[in-house]
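#lab-general

N.A. 3:47 PM
ok so I finally got the sequence cleaned up, no stray characters, all 371 residues accounted for. can someone with queue access submit it? mine expired

B.Y. 3:52 PM
send it over

N.A. 3:53 PM
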Amino acid sequence: MTTRTTPPFRADHVGSFLRPKYLLDAREQKARGEITAEQLRAVEDRAITEIVRFQEEVGLQSITDGEFRRTYFHIDFLEQLGGVKTDIPVTVRKPDGTEELAPPVMRVVDKVRHVKDIQRADFEYLKSQVSAGHTPKVTIPSPTMLHFRGGRAGISREHYPELDPAFYDDVARAYGEELKSLYEAGCRYVQMDDTNMAYLCDEKMREAARARGDDPNELPHRYAGFINKVVAYKPAGMTLAMHLCRGNFKSTFAAQGNYEPVAEALLAEMNLDAYFMEYDDDRSGDFRPLRFLPPGKIVVLGLVTTKFGEMESKDTLKRRIDEASRYAPLEQLCLSPQCGFSSTVHGNNIAVEAQRAKLRLVVETAVEVWG
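B.Y. 4:20 PM
back already:
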């Protein structure tokens, strides 16, 4: 086996990290009007510089800004596209008296378009902090998130009487312009975070899609075509990966189920370079869906949980990698945590020390497996 010189790397990660307290405090100060946006950005810069050093010190090759400038992994990006409006999440009381955060809903209220560079300035700062021999990575939400949660009802009929092809073409073009902007700034590694393909593995989510008027058996193939419209704009030399997320809010998850219902559309039909797939516990099923992985693509096995501090063992990780290699060649596999440590500003219920230990475990195990 060989190490990889292009992303994804044998030891990789999804991207988000626990925010330091001083950053959370500064965000609250900004919300109260006690500091300016420029002052908050200076605090973010400091925190990003520190998290870059952290990633390099634990041995990672791909380096993110920890998503330290975001509140939610998806909203902060999508609401900057022209034509997209976000309904602010609210706390709702359930029949049993408990409370939960209702997920924010994004609606398409006009033609979708790229009205400005969204991640470029953030990437340029990240790139300035990353040392030689490391690859800065940008994470953005998947374009499917503009369709799945609201379905047809969440997209303006006035502006899109028919979704296909106009809506999908416009979104893909907007994403393409963002990828071009990032490429021109020097970015060569982009990861799209997608909950919807993973949600379509869960029968409850599939039933919810039916209730919105969508066919959960058809959606994965439609989304494959949608993603391929984005890939068609990808600049040559850029790695475009997708992370399949089953929900990651304060150590909770939203979906479960084997990847089988989406595997062929995901792995064989999408023209992506790599997939980060969650496999940290029984929620994700077995590795048989990896049989659809064609030559030339990479699957990054998310075997290490970011939801809890309990440590996995190297022997267990090696055994599971061996199991996965029965369905996809070991040369086409890599290792990572199953998700980020803080997909929203709130963070998972895990200590900073455990965050470091789990990343070291990923790095050390990858070296022992792939050399």
